[in-house]
Amino acid sequence: MGYAEITLKLPTDYSEKLLKKLIFKEIGSMDFNFHIIRRSLDARNKRDIHFLTKIGVTADNLSGNEPTIEKLQIPDRRGINKKVVVTGCGPAGIFASLVLQKSGFQVTIIEKGCEVAERNERIAQFEKTGVFDNLGGYCFGEGGAGTFSDGKLTSRTKSITLEKNFIFEEFIKAGAPVEIAYETYPHIGSDNLKKIIPALIKKFRELGGKVIFGSEVTEINKSGNKIISVGISGRETGIIEGDHFIFANGHSSFKLYKLLISKGVLFSPKPFAIGFRVEHIQEELNYSMWRKRSLPGVKAAEYHLTADCDPGHAFTFCMCPGGKIVQSAPDEISSVVNGMSNFARNGKFANSAVVTPFSLEELAGKEISAGTALDLLEEMEHRFFNYRKSFDVPAARISDILHGRKTATLSETSFPFGIAPADMSSFFPKSVYERLKIGLSIFCKKLDCFENGVAMGFESKTSAPIKCLRNQDLTAAPFTNLYLCGEGSGYSGGIVSSAADGIKIAMKIAAG
């Protein structure tokens, strides 16, 4: 039995029968097995939109060898009798905990938010009443902020192949669509994540792990350069001791950031990106990109845009086809927007962040500490809340922004709270707003429907505003048994790179 890889051009609505017929034409045999390695949509020629599909084929008349896929080798440390305390139940925390529990450690996860089912109910109530819920918002809870997102699994990090293979394998075992393994831009969808994340936690518990929901770390106890315990309060209270401590708390946990800083953990400000969310009618976007309102076999059109603003640049981020914009406030006096969509991507609207790189030192006009950086970003998030003293958000038509006009009326959007016409320039530093405006003008030239959209709210959670200093063994300086991982550490962004960061730290601990 031999092996070969072939690339096929397929219509977007191809059937398995057609696929097998084309494979037969390529290899000259009817007796074969195949799997899809990679599939991407080629829409450069609007009259000939198709999938480019790389296929792995095994058959008797082939002579090549199938490449072996290297797998993550988790050290067997059963009987070690060591405790690991993990703060945060997002991708980084979940995958770090899974690896360590598989290895033989005794792992406890502490999560300030609640489980997915309860979180769903609390979010629905939040959107109905406008009353903030600390246990069940979009930022915190089982699965982290990523549970309520598009579930994108793309990552630009090159050095995580082993970790990525493990992540995808675990996701698929937990119920993720198999196509995530071969799509160029894979996504799970929020509806699937709400099932997959609890399945991963169930597996973790079956391995012997413990999860405490609805409680947050309010105390960190240390002896010299070692953490000895953490204090928690909420649904459960008490002191939890451990041998290793992992903080995978995301980048919205400013209170926890400040607690870590007060205990001597070294952080520094880092550049990130800020802007707003834009929203369009998905059918209009489809037509702009495909010259068709819909395309059989493809869920919805999506874009990835960049603009050279000279100086600086702007870009779109976390585009959610067929999705909705959500209020992802981390507390009761802040306002931050985010996007989410389900696997089918069949909603009326499409949304994306439009952002530009930014440094809080640019805002301060001088070098600042990590604590000051957090304070400045909080002030910006409070400014958006204070516009209406509610979770309604300021908004403007993109056409009005570009022509310097005041927006008089706004059309329907997916945002579950109110939107209010506003001068968006009043919320951003002048240089930031100018880059965003130039970016919008360039995007309008790239997509002829772009000017019809609405810009709204504050997008500030593209990545962390600060970064911890890591020692060579990945511990957080100056400590010897404390680790920060995931988006809150400043070393990752998104589901896959955050989960991979958690795995790397878990493997380092497991290796001893």
Q: Could you outline the blueprint of secondary structure elements for this entry?
A:
Layout: E1 2-11, H1 16-27, E2 32-42, E3 50-59, E4 83-87, H2 91-103, E5 106-111, H3 116-129, H4 161-173, H5 190-206, E6 210-213, E7 215-223, E8 226-234, E9 238-241, E10 244-247, H6 254-262, E11 267-269, E12 272-281, H7 282-290, E13 306-308, E14 313-327, E15 337-340, E16 349-358, H8 360-364, H9 370-386, E17 393-397, H10 398-403, E18 419-421, H11 430-446, E19 454-459, E20 466-468, E21 482-484, H12 495-511
Parallel strand pairs: 4-5, 4-10, 5-6, 10-21, 17-18
Antiparallel strand pairs: 1-3, 2-3, 7-8, 8-9, 11-20, 12-16, 12-19, 13-14, 14-15, 14-16, 17-19
Helix pairs in contact: 2-5, 2-12
